[in-house]
C-alpha cells in the first residue's frame, strides 16, 4: 500500500516537492558522498538529509547526504528544520515493515518542527518566522531544510519549548484522540494502558491527569523500575504496575481505590493486551494503537459474551486524512494541547538531543530495548 496524496511525492526524495508550476519544486539533486562536516549551514540552495535507498536496519541503510533544494514555487515555503524525533513508525518505514511505505530513495522522519524562512508570493496562510509541523506523514523531516507546499503544514505557537513542538504531532495527538473519541470519560473514571513509558503513554498520563481521569500504567520489569515508576508518577500517573502485577490477585486491591477502567489502551499486543481486557468494566473499549510485542491480540470469548467489550483500533495518520477537509479538527486539537503545554500540564517525553551528523548513534539508541528517552535530531 503506498502513501496517498502527500506521500506519493516521496518518489525519489521528498513528498512535498510538488508545487504546481513546471519550473518550481523540481526534484533536488542529491550528491552521493556522505558529509563529514561538523556543522551545516542552511541556505535557499542546499540542505543535508538522511536518505535511505533500500529497506533494512536503520543504522546500516541510512546515509547523510547533501542535496540542492528546488526553486520555490508561488504556493511553497522554505522551511528550516529545527528538531525532528525518531519514532518507532519511522524505523518501521526504513525496515520496510510499516503499513505505508514511500518509494525509494526517501528521506526519513515523519515528525518535527521547522521555521518558515521564505514564502511564495501566493502563500497567505504562513509568514516568515512561523513555526510549522507536517499535517501528514511522509514529509521526510530528517533534514536541515526543505521546500514544502504551504497547505501541507500547520502552524504552532513559538512560545512553547522546541522539543514539545517537535514531538507534538504524533504521540500527544494519538493520546488526545484515544482519550476523546472512544469512551465518554468523566473526572474520576479510570483508563488502563500498557507501554505507559512510551511517548504515547506519557502523553496519556498527563492529558488524563489534566482532565481528572485516573490512570493505571503498566510497564515491563527492568533494572531502573523504581526510577521509572517515580518519573511516571511525577507526570500524574495514579498507579504504576508491572506486567507481572497485572496478572496477580492484588489487582483486586487496586480496584478498591479506583473504578474498573472504561478504556484500555494497547500499544503492545499479545498477552499484555489480553490482560488489559480482563480488567475492563462491562461495555468498555480496548483501543490498539501499536504492537511492540509483534504478537496478535487474543480476545477471550467470555469478554465478548459476558462483558460486551469493544475492540477498536486507532492510527493518527488515518485520523488526519479522514479530517483533512475539516480545518478546525486538527487546529482545535493542537490548540488545546498547546494550552496544556503552556500551563505546565503536558511536557515533551524525556528526550536525548543528537546532532544530525551523529544520526547513527541516535538510530542505534532508538532500537535498544528498555530505553525510555526519545532520540531527537537537532539541526
Automatic annotation (TrEMBL):
Domain Enoyl reductase (ER): 62-377
InterPro entries: ADH-like_C (IPR013149), ADH-like_N (IPR013154), ER (IPR020843), GroES-like_sf (IPR011032), Mito_Enoyl-ACP_Reductase (IPR051034), NAD(P)-bd_dom_sf (IPR036291)
EC class: oxidoreductase
Pfam families: ADH_N, ADH_zinc_N
GO MF, one annotated term: enoyl-[acyl-carrier-protein] reductase (NADPH) activity
Signal peptide positions (record): none
Domain of life (superkingdom): Eukaryota
Record EC number: 1.3.1.104
Gene3D superfamilies named in the record: Medium-chain alcohol dehydrogenases, catalytic domain, NAD(P)-binding Rossmann-like Domain
Compartments it resides in: Mitochondrion
Cellular component aspect of the GO annotation: mitochondrion
Keywords: Fatty acid biosynthesis, Fatty acid metabolism, Lipid biosynthesis, Lipid metabolism, Mitochondrion, NADP, Oxidoreductase, Transit peptide
GO biological process, one term: fatty acid biosynthetic process
Family: Belongs to the zinc-containing alcohol dehydrogenase family. Quinone oxidoreductase subfamily.
Protein name: Enoyl-[acyl-carrier-protein] reductase, mitochondrial
Amino acid at each position: 500500500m503506498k502513501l496517498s496524496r502527500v506521500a506519493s511525492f516521496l518518489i525519489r526524495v521528498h513528498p512535498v516537492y510538488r508545487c504546481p508550476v513546471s519550473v518550481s519544486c523540481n526534484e533536488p539533486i542529491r550528491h552521493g558522498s556522505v558529509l563529514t562536516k561538523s556543522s551545516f549551514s542552511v541556505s535557499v540552495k542546499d540542505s543535508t538529509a538522511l536518505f535511505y535507498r533500500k529497506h533494512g536496519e536503520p543504522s546500516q541503510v541510512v546515509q547523510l547526504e547533501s542535496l540542492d533544494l528546488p526553486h520555490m514555487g508561488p504556493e511553497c515555503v522554505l522551511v528550516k528544520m529545527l528538531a525532528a524525533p525518531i519514532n518507532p513508525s519511522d524505523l518501521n518505514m526504513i525496515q520496510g515493515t510499516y503499513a505505508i511505505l514511500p518509494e525509494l530513495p526517501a528521506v526519513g522522519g515523519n515528525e518535527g518542527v521547522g521555521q518558515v524562512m521564505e514564502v511564495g508570493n501566493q502563500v497567505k496562510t504562513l509568514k516568515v518566522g512561523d513555526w510549522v509541523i507536517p499535517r501528514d506523514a511522509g514529509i521526510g523531516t530528517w533534514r536541515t531544510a526543505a521546500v514544502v507546499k504551504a497547505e501541507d503544514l500547520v502552524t504552532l505557537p513559538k512560545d512553547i519549548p522546541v522539543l514539545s513542538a517537535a514531538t507534538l504531532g504524533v504521540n500527544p495527538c494519538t493520546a488526545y484522540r484515544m482519550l476523546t473519541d472512544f469512551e465518554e470519560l468523566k473526572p474520576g473514571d479510570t483508563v488502563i494502558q500498557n507501554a505507559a513509558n512510551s511517548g504515547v503513554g506519557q502523553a496519556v498520563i498527563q492529558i488524563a491527569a489534566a482532565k481528572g481521569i485516573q490512570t493505571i500504567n503498566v510497564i515491563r520489569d527492568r533494572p531502573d523500575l523504581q526510577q521509572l515508576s517515580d518519573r511516571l508518577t511525577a507526570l500524574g500517573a495514579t498507579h504504576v504496575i508491572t506486567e507481572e502485577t497485572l496478572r496477580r490477585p492484588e489487582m483486586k486491591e487496586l480496584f478498591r481505590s479506583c473504578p474498573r477502567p472504561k478504556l484500555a489502551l494497547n500499544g503492545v499486543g499479545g498477552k499484555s493486551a489480553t490482560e488489559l481486557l480482563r480488567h475492563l468494566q462491562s461495555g468498555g473499549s480496548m483501543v490498539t494503537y501499536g504492537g511492540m510485542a509483534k504478537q496478535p491480540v487474543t480476545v477471550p470469548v467470555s469478554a465478548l459474551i459476558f462483558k460486551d467489550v469493544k475492540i477498536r483500533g486507532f492510527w493518527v495518520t488515518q485520523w488526519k486524512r479522514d479530517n483533512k477537509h475539516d480545518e478546525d479538527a486538527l487546529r482545535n486539537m493542537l490548540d488545546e494541547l498547546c494550552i496544556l503545554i503552556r500551563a505546565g500540564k503536558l511536557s515533551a517525553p524525556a528526550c536525548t538531543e543528537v546532532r544530525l551528523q551523529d544520526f547513527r548513534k541516535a538510530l542505534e539508541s532508538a532500537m535498544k530495548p528498555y530505553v525510555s528517552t526519545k532520540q531527537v535530531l537537532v539541526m
